[in-house]
Write a structure and sequence with these properties.
Elements (H helix, E strand, L loop, with lengths): L4 E4 L9 H14 L6 H8 L4 H12 L7 H16 L6 H10 L4 E5 L3 H11 L2 H4 L4 E3 L11 H9 L7 E5 L2 H9 L3 E5 L5 H4 L4 E3 L5 H5 L2
Parallel strand pairs: 1-2, 1-4, 2-3, 4-5, 5-6
Length: 215
């Protein structure tokens, strides 16, 4: 094993949240007068912090989103999470394998701290991380695709960047990992391979990941 730390993205990697959250985001933006399809939301916002939504809408329309946009969106997303969210198939087994081999891991997500915790608790994954191994874009001044979040997580975990591997499913996250000087493994369940490359490995099923990381 060549890595001292495995850094997981949350949405779409640990929890199967991208279909839920992007449908809700697209519907809400459309409701506010900014027509957005599910496919638009995946293309423009998947893997990004919420400020990207605000910035993109302002750039395209010249209009600002309502002051309560974030709170309303979170409320709608969290309600759907508690009702429908599931872990990504096979991810629990991947974490069990890392635990058995004594390989440290953490989560570093563009989502808020509250969103990460709601998702992990709902899917039964929270106990595998605990407070000390959860990192959010709220912890840094620049979110993905800047490297700040991944560098912050590595530093907090006591690992050097070149000894870390990042597991990502979004182009923005993969770009951030490369900018941080970390290896990146791209999960292609929802993202075309070409949008995640260049990567150290690409995989479409979680069962393939240990073979890539532990070779």
């Amino acid at each position: 094993m060549g890595y001292d730390l495995i850094i997981f993205d949350n949405d779409g990697v640990l929890v199967d949240s991208e279909p839920i959250s992007n449908r809700i985001l697209a519907d809400y933006l459309t409701e506010l007068g900014h027509p957005t399809t599910y496919e638009d939301s995946i293309r423009d916002y998947m893997g990004a912090a919420l400020h990207r939504v605000h910035d993109t809408v302002l750039e395209r329309s010249g209009l600002r989103l309502p002051d309560d946009f974030d709170d309303t969106l979170h409320q709608r997303v969290f309600e759907a999470f508690r009702r429908d969210l599931r872990p990504v198939a096979g991810v629990a087994e991947v974490l069990e394998k890392l635990d058995a081999d004594g390989i440290p891991y953490c989560v570093a997500s563009s989502g808020s701290h509250e969103r990460i915790r709601v998702a992990l608790r709902t899917t039964g994954l929270y106990e595998r991380f605990g407070e000390e191994r959860i990192f959010s874009s709220q912890d840094v001044s620049r979110g993905k695709p800047a490297p700040d979040l991944f560098l912050h997580a590595a530093g907090a975990m006591g690992s050097e960047a070149h000894r870390c591997a990042v597991v990502e499913d979004s182009p923005l996250g993969a770009q951030a990992a490369r900018a941080a000087g970390m290896d990146v493994y791209g999960f292609t369940a929802m993202t075309p391979e070409a949008k995640l490359g260049p990567a150290n490995g690409l995989f479409g099923e979680m069962s393939e990941l240990p073979g890539l990381l532990l070779r």
